[in-house]
């Protein structure tokens, strides 16, 4: 009896295999739960700001806390306006460009929608 396993969500490899309740890709090493492989991809992720407003691509936000820029002596000050954000998956769920700092990732917990 053959079973068809889904392709790897990161590299699209078809050589995935099951290890208990996990699916594993031998090419890129990505692991994900077997039950959440298909239904989770269909659900839309809602990203909210520090006060609970729903964020969308292209929104303008302001920073609610001084943020140190890793690997630099720069600081993004409270009240800094960030225009045209892009929402992403991961720990830092906002990609943006900040004047004087450049491109960086922000956590939605440290911004407020304007």
Automatic annotation (TrEMBL):
Domain of life: Bacteria
InterPro entries named among the record's database cross-references: YjdM, YjdM_C, YjdM_N
One Pfam match: Zn_Ribbon_YjdM
Limits of the Protein YjdM C-terminal domain: 47-114
Domain Protein YjdM N-terminal: 4-33
Entry's family note: Belongs to the YjdM family.
PANTHER family assigned to the protein according to its UniProt record, in alphabetical order: PROTEIN YJDM (PTHR30305:SF3), PROTEIN YJDM-RELATED (PTHR30305)
Protein name: Alkylphosphonate utilization protein
Organism annotation: Pelomonas caseinilytica
């Amino acid at each position: 009896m053959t079973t068809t396993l889904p392709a790897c969500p990161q590299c699209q490899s078809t050589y995935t295999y099951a290890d208990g309740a996990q699916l594993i890709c031998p090419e890129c090493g990505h692991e994900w739960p077997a039950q959440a492989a298909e239904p989770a991809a269909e659900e839309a992720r809602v990203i909210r700001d520090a006060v609970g407003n729903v964020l969308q691509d292209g929104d303008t936000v302001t920073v609610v806390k001084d943020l140190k820029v890793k690997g630099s002596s720069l600081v993004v000050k409270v009240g800094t306006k960030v225009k045209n954000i892009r929402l992403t998956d991961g720990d830092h769920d906002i990609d943006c460009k900040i004047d004087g700092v450049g491109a960086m990732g922000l956590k939605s917990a440290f911004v407020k929608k304007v």
